[in-house]
Design goal:
2 copies of one chain form a homodimer. Chain A is mostly beta strands and 149 residues long. Helix content of chain A is 3%, strand content 32%. Chain A is globular, with a radius of gyration of 17 Å. Chains A and B meet through strand 1, strand 4, strand 6, strand 7 and strand 9 of A and strand 1, strand 4, strand 6, strand 7 and strand 9 of B.
Chain lengths: 149, 149
Amino acid sequence: MSDATKDSTPTGLELRPVGVIRSEITARADAPKQGFEGAPDVWLEVFPWAADGLHLVAEGDELIVITWFHQAHRDVFQVHPRSNPRNPLTGVFATRSPDRPNPLGLHPVVVRAVDGNRLRVGPIEAIDGTPVVDIKPVLSCTPRDPSAS
Amino acid sequence: MSDATKDSTPTGLELRPVGVIRSEITARADAPKQGFEGAPDVWLEVFPWAADGLHLVAEGDELIVITWFHQAHRDVFQVHPRSNPRNPLTGVFATRSPDRPNPLGLHPVVVRAVDGNRLRVGPIEAIDGTPVVDIKPVLSCTPRDPSAS
């Protein structure tokens, strides 16, 4: 066993969903691949036990919603990007494929409205029933200024 | 029980670490709050079972590393941002506090070098031994063009 695996790295890290996506999109086949590709707004329902975490979230905020792609395949390590066989086989860590060892989704959204423990957010391609595991504000998203590249 | 909790939302979503951070920073108190605040480059060691997922990751790529803040407190729902008591108490979903129900960290980095199943990446504030649970390429990070706001 290598140093990397024998030391204190924990296993079995357990996520507890803090909320759920309520979307008009109910099937993975009907979802755009990215939110900016025509995805709808949705309701993000935060469960009552986690609702205190929403304090000061407001309309107009830019957030990153982290979801759990509950229909993903976790034994996939390489894919043809965008499901196009003409794209070269690529490691999932170089793609946004929902199929990956830990099927976490990152969704940049804008808060359209706040209604108690529900946020109207979008655009977001996650399908109805998708668990939400975290919500964060957008900070600097890239280490370099995009306008400089 | 509400509709939101009684339906098919899974519980007990289990993350399996795909790698680990090897950093010169060994204590949380010594870590900058964000990577762009003077954090170092680190080695990101991907475990052999997940290394196929790195195929085509290359020097210069901009990635988002998702970590598990293994020293975080999961029972925290509101904080004073940046640990400054003069900042108003704020829901953790409106902050980047590592203390939150699911202590996931998002780290935008640049790949400085690739050495087998190890990536030299930075800047990143995660401390030595922090589990890595996912790696994704940077796409559009915000739903709006930052230059338009």
